Write a sequence for this structure.
């Protein structure tokens, strides 16, 4: 193991708190890194559950006093996994304290918050910032990026970004926290859409020029309030005679637009695609080649090479869990012993350590500046849906 | 064979002329019909090629005089397969003459033409009209229709209609007739989009309420004029130093909108989806179930039944070429000896004969009234793209 | 249409009688042939149904007197589609009469019959012989053959031939004719296995050296005798209290062996693979490349090119219904408007006409000599299963 | 975390040493267990690399003295991951010392060794034994087991177990340790075949009755000796002019046979299936239903329910990474955030802890007695290949 280390303070102990803890635990075991993360302090509001969490995952300290923890002189990196509308406060404090910052996606719940965070990051010149658009490090996505960089797509015509879940399509699903804007920060657009917008910006290297049309829909406007209020996750069927409350987020968003380099694109995010569990990814059609990715089949990239002779041309299923295909697999297991959901987080933790150790990862990491661009797209999509009119990205600053 | 017959006059000897000839040839051989079609007269402009065509396919007569042929007292059914902008003239003449009329899709090149044709059909009370939206009779599409009628989808949330081809994505493809509005009548929207709009109207039983946004794009604005001008089909690479001419149709169209019963939908038609040869169909997500169809896999329907126990729930690949699944397979071959592209035409020819014989086919046939609704959607998509604004269908009459 | 013609006498009006009638009807319409088939005489035992059949399909004459019909001076080609155990009698008569002969597969029900037929064909030097191993002309299979001929597979290691149906797996299926050796001629081995053995011999260009082990199994030994005895096709559930009769054919066969050039192979044929409707084809793994084909997905060939760079290597789905990929599609419809089951018959009828017109088809046709080799493999598989011991092909003559 | 713990001594630091270390590290973090594993001592021959390994993975002690370590009073569980021919020595010592034992698969390199180990385990009544047939805990395999237990397959007709890799198919691959029986213990049969034999015994609940035929093949008999002898993994292309050495293991094995309850089965294991990276699993066809599993698509199980109405019947892709489908996913991430290769090891480590804590895991663990049955099948396959004759399992004791 490397001699250099950095102490991490992690805020949040829910789904993402676990995913990041697992990433810090595993990254130095599988990768040889210039700097190793040390699981120093875990921060959250409920101390009793936090102690158990710290014990389970190996965090040396647990505290509810986030301000003190962030400013602790031993801490080098602050990692924020709270709901989107809480990102700003923690991030600004960490940057002020001169810490490197990692933040869950999307950067913020509003464009104003995101702008403030980006500007603070610009000023804090010695601080590195990272945003957990971790899907860039799914092997198949990293491979798509590399094929595009090799010039294998050529001029890009069509970009389709989609994130299709179906869990909310039954009216029997009660009013859990994810349907509440206050608690969740955003609906399908921020939760799901943000990921795939980042992915297509990343793979194409192109930016959105204009949102031409956008639909934001809440199919089921009211749901039964669950008996155990505030339950995390999908509660089972609501009680008979239960009161109803309003759904305050979007169930689905579908927008179309134009890319700067002349392609047209589409973004879909929904929780009502019955039958799709976690189907997200992209279809990108270029002059010389095309790529297709679907997270439900996360270890494979589909590639069409239009330059091959016609009688051997077709969609090729590239197993990206083969060493030599992408830059992470060799760290884990032999050929085609594939990884799962969590490995993209481990890969990102490893690459963050590389950046902090002065190295340049093969697959670029998104910083606040980069994530702000995705935030502008989210804003333009919302605006277009609200105004029922096209929105040029140049007007969203 | 049945004793009753009807004499057919077919206009056009190109791609659709062959497809319909084959359909009339085969329908009475595979199906027991109340009325059998007789291949009486083939009509087109070039008599020399027409004689060969008639000989090959068994048309008893061949003529260039369409007016005389249409009005011939022996003719019972006039079938029109010319370019879209020529449909009206032939159709009106046939209706005036009191003939039954079948017309290729889309009904017309413009909404005005389509309206005139629909109105003429309404007046000609004794004439049956048919439009060749033949994909309704692809076994997998017919099966989707039947599952929807059984109530297996429930409230519909998402409708995606797509028609993805990639043949035009290279700038080396010369300026063939398909890129010329004058000759082709329409670009990807009329050629491809019309089919899938009909399909989703048919399967969902719902209608479009509003186009919220629409993009119509010509990616490659100029192409080299091929040496042999007017070549049908895709000519090989253009000559060096060849002159360039303008592409006057759309290469791709993508529109989003709302359905009357509350779902949201998307229509995509493109010739620039490199890698996709003839990928068209639909994804429809409902409360109780979902269906997915792709013509490149034309004998299978994918169905998700959300009412099954969770541990056996998933997308089911239904082989529709099994007798008992859909209403046409039994006429052909034993189980899972599947059909191809042409069989949807044969099935439609058979069902047209059933209607003319007073029977009601299990799968409804589109008449002019029905096809006019699809034409309104095409018009709204074009308008929305031109005006860069939402268009309510109620304003398109 | 071509001026030259040949008069065909077809024996049999069941499944294959229809398939061949359709092939003769369509071949000259889609292909430009040096000789066109004329549907002269249809021969079968039941004259009343035969008249209807002739009327429906356009056979000029219908007769029960097979000997007279075969020897009729106008007849040029005799085509035999009766049960396997009846092939010999008709074929020998036709060869004696100096006619060209086409025979359904397998060549015969026994090796002795097949040998006699092959020898008669050898003597009848002016007669061409054909066997309806029609799957060679499925576009994907023809493409596999061509890739192999280009040297894209290299030394072949593994050959898997499989034919998996599931229709007989329920004990409720009654004792239809297919379970009776007397009526059917053979069980799964002759009915299904013969096809895939021919396919792998054809694609690899290699021959079987030895059967190392073989299992022949009848899972359900007795079935209820259906009320309407002798029903063709799968009758619905048997009556309660119905008498039982013996199944006298194999339900499934699985054999393994060695190829002459050093590969190992496996042949599976079954009617008990519940869930598989008509899944048959091959997997062939070579040093430089591999191919995979499954008839349930008949328009696609899967090809792996081991000579490509590792990061773009994978199984490629080649849509063979693209003109330029295989030698038949251009005759039918534009790109990726695919064919179905029946088109392989039409393609074979067309190629038979080419041979009779002195041309050499791009995809070789199997003659009696070729089909006799497949028969030897069937015999060796049966022998090995009976003797429970390896059988060298050199001992089966 | 639970108060109870057990100290583990792990022998081996190669591929499996890492996989097991990762399993012990993660199991108590994701699962609530009655006993937690403590990573006490790692044992291997090379002390210098071992220290680094122990440091990286968190083993408290590292030693080359296996005898002392095994007998250390603090150790409760000994885990053996050495080559197969070394299993016996360590296992017998551990059982003698009264320790619980976990052993990598297959149980041993020979049936004699395996028998001795099984008998020793029987005598050591207080010792629990486990064999790492970890694929039983891949979610899709566990789901198949549960569907079978629910009676959803009915009488089983066909069992196909396959393990297809292609990495060795090029003659340019040098003579690495895996081609050397001395170093590797076995070729494709023991390395690959053992896994899938265990899987089908597990899912069907049935045992092999007889091997009817078996082929064991070494396609490439000699390979170039790599310059750096003894390299683990696949070395790059051999040097020109390099000396050649003999391959002493099988490249591929294919056997067919009969199951006790009347089904027929097939086992294939190969490293020469060019194009297949790590394709292994099973096809099981029963009277009422069928299941299909392929590790290259490890989160999905394909299931056919023959009891559904015909028009909605088909192969269903069950996403097993949905909580409620199988008994492990809930421990990790929300629905359809799937696991990878390593999770089957974590699941097994968790279940071993449950057994040691007196609980009964939902999915049974294989002990030495169970693994001995798989060893008998391996032996019968080898014998049949050697003798070129059928081998009854009852003769292999």
């Amino acid at each position: 193991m490397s001699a250099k280390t950095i102490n991490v303070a992690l805020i949040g102990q829910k789904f993402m708190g676990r995913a990041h803890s697992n990433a810090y635990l595993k990254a130095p075991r599988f990768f040889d890194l210039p700097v190793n993360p040390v699981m120093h302090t875990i921060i959250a509001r409920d101390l009793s559950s936090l102690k158990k969490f710290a014990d389970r995952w190996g965090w040396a300290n647990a505290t509810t006093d986030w301000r003190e923890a962030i400013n602790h002189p031993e801490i080098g990196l602050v990692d924020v996994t709270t709901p989107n509308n809480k990102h700003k406060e923690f991030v600004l404090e960490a940057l002020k304290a001169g810490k490197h910052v990692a933040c869950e996606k999307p950067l913020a719940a509003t464009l104003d918050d995101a702008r403030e965070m980006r500007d603070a990051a610009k000023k804090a010149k010695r601080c590195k910032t990272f945003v957990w658009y971790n899907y860039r490090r799914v092997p198949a996505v990293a491979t798509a990026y590399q094929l595009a960089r090799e010039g294998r797509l050529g001029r890009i015509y069509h970009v389709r970004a989609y994130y299709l879940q179906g869990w909310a399509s039954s009216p029997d699903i009660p009013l859990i926290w994810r349907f509440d804007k206050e608690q969740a920060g955003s609906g399908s657009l921020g939760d799901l859409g943000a990921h795939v917008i980042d992915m297509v910006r990343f793979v194409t290297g192109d930016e959105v020029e204009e949102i031409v049309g956008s639909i934001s829909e809440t199919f089921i406007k009211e749901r039964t309030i669950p008996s155990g209020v505030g339950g995390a996750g999908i509660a089972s069927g609501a009680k008979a005679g239960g009161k109803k409350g309003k759904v305050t987020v979007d169930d689905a968003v579908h927008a179309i637009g134009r890319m700067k380099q002349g392609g047209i694109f589409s973004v879909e995010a929904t929780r009502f695609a019955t039958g799709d569990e976690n189907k997200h990814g992209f279809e990108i059609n270029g002059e010389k080649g095309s790529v297709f990715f679907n997270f439900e089949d996360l270890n494979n990239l589909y590639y069409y090479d239009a330059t091959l002779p016609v009688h051997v041309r077709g969609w090729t299923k590239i197993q990206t869990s083969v060493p030599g295909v992408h830059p992470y697999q060799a760290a884990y297991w032999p050929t085609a012993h594939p990884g799962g959901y969590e490995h993209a987080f481990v890969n990102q933790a490893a690459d963050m350590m590389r950046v902090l150790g002065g190295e340049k990862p093969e697959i670029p990491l998104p910083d606040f500046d980069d994530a702000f661009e995705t935030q502008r797209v989210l804003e333009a999509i919302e605006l277009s849906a609200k105004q029922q009119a096209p929105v040029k990205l140049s007007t969203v600053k």
Summary: Confidence is low (pLDDT under 50) at residues 229-240 of chain D.
